[in-house]
Amino acid sequence: MTDFSEKEIQNLQRLLTSPDVANVHVALEILKSNKTLIAKVWDYLYLSSELHEDYKSKELMKKILEKSDVSSKAFYEEAFTIFSLPPYPIEEKEVEEIIRKYESIEANFDEAFHMNVSFSKEMGRMAVRIANSFNLLETAQKYFKKSFYFYEANGWLHFKYGMFLHEEFAVKKKSKKWAEIAIHHYTRSIDLGYSTYPAYHNSALLYRKPLGEINQAIAFHLKALEHKPNYTSSLYCLGLLHFDLGDYETAKMYLNKNIEVNPVDTQALNFLAWILAKYDQQFDKALEITQKVLQIKSDNPYSLDTLAYIQLKGLNEPLKAEKTYLKALTINPNHASSMAGLGNINRDTHQNFFEAENYYRKALEIKPKNITALIGMADLHFFHLDQKEKAFAFYEKAFEIEPNNAYLTEMMLKSDKK
Which of 350, 418, 413 is nearest to 384 (CA)? Predict the structure, then answer.
């Protein structure tokens, strides 16, 4: 079958962009046996890949592309870019030739073609390829801007440009200015009807860091959930944000919702276990969750760290805890929390204050706001080394991070400064 009615094509388009993943699968099965349809619904295939976080859909799409009658290099470059599959092998020396090709095409367009949608999309894809494959940020930036020149109302491009600015400038350079510009492009992609919950989620990430606007971050994650209530990325982040605010009950609520959607989400499971152990002293429940995570992934350094904390504080088994912390560090030598735990064991169990201070210092070099290391260092100087001034300097830093911590409040009252 090579000819398809307009109604059949429209029905396929509707199935591909349906919020029901089962409908997407139906459309993909049709495409498997009617490969000439791919070109007619290409944009909808792409939109579907953005709408659904569904591995079955991704695998079906991959098989369709691999078995397609079209085998040109250009087709696969585009397909692999769109579906986030391994890019077509290309050497860096070919980049200049590709750029020259695009510039020669561009030379044929003047202001009369300012609203040319297809050329704008082609320019945008060029920018995405350059940004993803090569460290040519200025060149990628140039092509993003040229793409907007030819057609500004391109929601796909606004989202991709937002991601580019997000990753390469806002995060890597910790730039508030670029974070705000990235958020502008995410918002524009939403206004143009291209992206909803991913754009809200990404904006929320930037509001947390580097902008430091926690309430805005929460508001944007909630907007993401309005469009996709089971979006685990935002559920987890809401747990993290409320944890940062010291609202552990709300943090646990969102983490539990995350786990309801994905019962094997090790990140959410471990975070929940950590809160239960450290802040609720519900060691039995925390241990049960931690053991579940370690059954899924036995070399998870974060869960090993949580297990060590439970062994130390809940089970009063410091030597077992020491072995578990050391195991976590063999997997991740820069795990600050495990270093701080070893500092506590060296201080309290082995009375090795020199080694304890070394562990605390290493932890704080890696993570200056590690609360366990800050309190550990403060207690070491206050109770064991009789260096009160140094101790209160560390208590103050810890108190700035956790102002509602009862222990820190008590210790700050002992300072002459309070």
Answer: 350
Token reading at 362: 């290493």
Q: pLDDT per residue over 98-142, tens digit each?
A: 556 555 555 554 443 444 556 666 667 767 766 665 566 777 787
Q: Side chain identity at 123, as an amino acid letter? A: M
Q: pLDDT value at position 132?
A: 63
**Angstrom distances, CA of residue 410 to CA of 24, 232, 405, 406, 418:** 59, 38, 9, 6, 11
Distance of CA 74 to the CA centre of its chain: 30
Contacts of residues 265-268 at CB distance under 8 Å and 24 or more positions apart, as own/partner, are 265/232, 265/236, 266/293, 266/296, 266/297, 266/300, 266/303, 267/236, 267/302, 268/232, 268/235, 268/236, 268/239
Distance from the Cα of residue 5 to its chain's centroid: 42
Domain ranges of the chain: 6-82, 90-152
- 144: its two tokens: 């993003």
Q: What is the pTM of this model?
A: 0.71
pLDDT digits (tens, 9 = 90+) for 164-184: 899 989 998 999 999 999 999
**How far is residue 154 CA from its own chain's centroid?**
25
Name all contacts of 30-33 with Cβ < 8 Å and 24+ positions apart. 31/64, 32/60, 32/63, 32/64, 32/67
Q: What is the dihedral of CA 389, 390, 393, 399, to 10 degrees?
A: -100
φ and ψ of 245, to 5 deg: -85, -5
Query: Hey, what are 226's tokens?
Result: 């309005």
